[in-house]
Design brief:
heterodimer, A: 441 residues, Rossmann fold, 2 domains, eight-stranded mixed β-sheet, 12 helices, globular, B: mainly alpha, two-stranded antiparallel sheet
Chain lengths: 441, 294
């Protein structure tokens, strides 16, 4: 119901002088820049995205495009990609699939973007999946862990996932519970859609017999008392939530009302941002409620470095990029997400070559995307057979404003794929802060 | 057993919240014969005013009083400026205007206060009372909600039944020409009706917000449930609104708690309940006068 639905933010391209060639993508081949595809001119590349900037899903998620914007600005300031400035246009869909279709239509048909990057949400992005693939528009790095984006490259050749899929996440969580808490009575708190379903499927592979209750909530229905009291009644002492951040806050608040104290809360990556949840719950922890932080001690999963690791070189880079961008607000995990996604996007654009077509971009990701190093903790699964994003996660415990690693990065895949500890070394950012991938052909 | 108690208590508290909103709808219906769809947005606007005051360091109670006062002014202004010009025409016109107002106010809130989730404090605790060593889902905040709604209902009944103003308001709503001939200043009564309804709406908005989260559209589902509760109760009776709210609250809580994937069925259930009641008793459960149609 928001009239702001059409609010549009267009990046102002700050074309600065320093367009030296070494920053413009590795295998610079000389020759002139051409308008090789829709959205590409001799000196610019237009990218589009859809995010919930208003509505229930806006808290947190609306910060992602500001992070991406900051990183693209940083790249532009340092010469762009093959001397092309990136023009990043993101539009508000208010997490409403009808709006998503509308804004993506605009992006593709009116703004004529080269590619859609990081469109957020399973229900929302599903609405434009067929459109983008039938139009042949590269649909990179969807901001959602659904398996839809990557498991069938034959059906959706232009779409790529990015973050760890929810099923793999569920498997990693399930194995951890089976190993460390074999006697726990597990309760599941699930969003009633693909997100919760995939997570549940993964967890059940390992602890099916330990699960005493699986409760589902519908986004928009903010009364979760019936669900939380059912978990309590079933005697669940280890609760795993596959839910969005506002429902982490609601579930904690309701548990507080009910006096329900399971021994362990485990929130999937999506719902666990401590800063956001903390700021939502803070008002209740002043005065009436004495607990300093309700989320203290909860477990969660990570596939990216987080703001509570100020010594991590990636966090330092992103902090610098954020400070330079001069946008309002602090660096948050959502902004890191946006920047990390923008980093992968730059890798893809560089790999696609100096004068790429849309198909070149797709082929580049399939051919070399699996080898890219970046802020993401585990490798991507990109190949001609899979467009799934990164394949691994670590598990950590939230302690006040920081977190400690409990299980190092584990990697796996859909279905019955084994879970293995990741043996690669964590990547460090290049000194320029900008990737330098050679053209793939 | 514990779960049953908790699901029931949750339903009662939610039901009281629906009832609070239904009361506002009943009030405006009784005093102007218009269903005001903008009620939710107007309430949300006053809740954001209250939150701004609280964020500025004022106490909850100061914020509550200012919010109710701004509700009163907002209601009066809306009636005078926006609804009055269409009041004489077909009934549908006024209803459509309130629908437009609903969207416009919500957008205005987003522009002024932002659209992010914010927690709204409550003057009382959010931990449930304990009996023995079990905690039940009855918090000091829910007691506050229940008591406030009951007091509001009593005041409304008293207003309409025992005061001249209440009588004049009903008369103006019922038959403008006749009321005018009898010396009632109909215009003022309509403005007063809107203003009072906005105060009650604002109260319900603040009660719902307390100990929870607000964003510009947070009243949306309440509008639907509040409307269903009001219609269940006959749209005309404050007691009916309370009973309707409680029936709806309990039914939805049981659906959510005991039906597989119940949370997804809550909205559908509200529709089913509404349809069944309207089929069996078209005037609502507490219709005071089936013959009287304005």
């Amino acid at each position: 119901m928001s009239l702001l639905a059409a609010a549009t933010v267009v990046s102002t391209v700050a074309a600065c002088g320093g367009s030296n060639d070494d920053n413009g993508g590795g295998g610079s081949t000389g020759g002139a820049n051409e308008a090789s595809a829709p959205g590409i001119t001799a000196d610019s590349i237009k990218l589009g995205a859809h995010f919930p900037l208003t509505g229930v899903a806006a808290p947190g998620y609306s910060e992602i495009p500001t992070g991406a914007q900051a990183y693209f600005d940083y790249v532009n300031k340092n010469g762009g990609v093959y001397d092309r400035q990136i023009e990043y246009i993101y539009k508000d869909d208010a997490y409403n699939p009808t709006n998503t279709s509308q804004v993506v239509n605009q992006l593709v048909l009116e703004d004529e973007v080269f590619a859609i990057v990081g469109g957020l949400g399973t229900p929302t992005h599903s609405a434009v999946l067929d459109f983008l693939n039938s139009e042949g528009v590269p649909d990179l790095f969807v901001s959602s862990g659904s398996r839809l984006w990557g498991e069938e490259p034959g059906t959706n050749p232009y779409t790529f996932g990015w973050q760890t899929d929810y099923e793999s996440e569920g498997k990693i969580i399930g194995q951890y519970i089976a190993d460390e808490f074999p006697d726990a009575k597990v309760g599941l708190f699930l969003q009633d859609d693909d997100f919760g379903e995939d997570g549940e499927k993964g967890i059940r592979q390992f602890v099916d017999d330990q699960i005493v209750a699986a409760e589902r909530y519908t986004p928009g229905n903010t009364n979760v008392a019936p669900q939380i009291s059912a978990l309590q009644a079933a005697g669940a002492d280890f609760v795993v939530g596959f839910n969005v951040p506002s429902y982490t806050a609601l579930s904690q608040l309701t548990a507080l009302q009910l006096g329900y104290k399971p021994q362990q809360w485990f929130y999937s990556n999506v719902g666990s941002d401590p800063t956001l949840v903390g700021s939502l719950l803070q008002r209740f922890s002043q005065g009436a409620v004495s607990d300093a932080s309700l989320l203290d001690g909860a477990l969660t999963t990570d596939y990216l470095p987080t703001v509570d690791e100020p010594d991590n070189p990636w966090v330092q880079l992103f902090q610098k990029v954020w400070d330079e961008s001069g946008q309002e607000g602090e660096l948050t995990n959502y902004r890191i997400y946006g920047m990390a996604q923008a980093y992968t996007t730059i890798q893809a654009l560089q790999a696609a070559g100096q004068n790429p077509t849309r198909d070149d971009l797709v082929e580049a990701i399939e051919t070399v995307g699996g080898d890219w190093k970046g802020p993401v903790l585990a490798p991507f699964r990109y190949s001609a057979d899979s467009h799934m994003g990164t394949n691994g996660m670590s598990i950590s415990r939230l302690t006040g404003t920081s977190s400690e690693e409990v299980v190092p990065v584990q990697t796996t895949d859909l279905e019955n794929a084994d879970i293995k500890e990741y043996d690669g070394k964590p990547a460090t950012p290049p000194s320029s802060g900008i990737p330098d991938e050679p053209a793939f052909k | 057993m514990q779960q049953f108690v908790n699901v029931t208590l949750s339903g009662l508290t939610q039901g009281m919240i629906y009832a609070a909103f239904a009361l506002a709808l009943v009030l405006i219906w009784r005093s102007t014969r218009i269903v005001n769809f903008a009620q939710g947005s107007m309430a949300a606007a006053t809740a954001f005013i209250a939150l701004a005051l609280i964020n500025a360091g004022q106490s909850y109670w100061v914020a509550l009083i200012v919010a109710l006062a701004s509700g009163f002014i907002l209601g009066a202004v809306v009636e005078r400026v926006i609804v009055r010009p269409v009041e004489g025409g077909p009934e549908l016109n006024a209803v459509i205007v309130t629908l437009g107002l609903f969207v416009a106010i919500q957008a205005l809130i987003a522009i002024i206060f932002g659209s992010s989730f914010q927690s709204f404090p409550t003057p009382f605790g959010v931990r449930g009372f304990t009996i023995g060593d079990t905690t039940i889902l009855l918090t000091p905040t829910s007691v506050y909600i229940i008591v406030s709604v009951l007091i509001t209902m009593a005041l409304l009944v008293a207003l309409f039944r025992f005061t001249r103003v209440g009588l004049a308001m009903r008369a103006s709503a019922f038959g403008q020409e006749v009321a005018r001939l009898l010396g009632v200043r109909v215009g003022r009564m309509l403005t007063l009706g809107w203003a009072l309804a906005a105060v009650v709406g604002s109260l319900s908005g603040l009660l719902i917000a307390g100990g929870g989260f607000i964003y510009p559209a947070y009243m949306d589902s309440l509008i639907v449930f509040g409307f269903v509760a009001a219609v269940l109760g006959g749209l005309d009776s404050p007691v009916g609104a309370i009973v309707g709210g409680l029936i709806l609250g309990l039914a939805l809580s049981y659906v959510s708690g005991y039906v597989e994937r119940g949370s997804a069925l809550v909205n559908v259930s509200a529709l089913v309940i509404l349809m069944v009641v309207l089929l069996v008793r078209p005037g609502g459960l507490f219709a005071s006068s089936t013959a009287r149609r304005a």
